[in-house]
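Project standup — Tuesday

K.O.: blocked on the structure for the chain from last sprint. Re-posting the sequence here as requested.
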Amino acid sequence: MGTSAHTHRWTTRSRHRTSQGVVAYGHCACGRWRVDRATTAQVEQTLAVTSAAPTEGIP
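H.V.: unblocked you, prediction finished:
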């Protein structure tokens, strides 16, 4: 199984206020997740991006 490069279309699945700013969890249809943080200075920083997880056998 090969993977092809594409432009991710992130959908915000969850957003939470924290003492460090707002943390948002995004998901792409390819299976990747990412975590972003927006601080009070309105600076957005991507904290993590996962690799696509295999979906076979997952109910």
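K.O.: great, moving the ticket to review. The mean pLDDT is 76. The two ends are 20 Å apart (CA to CA).
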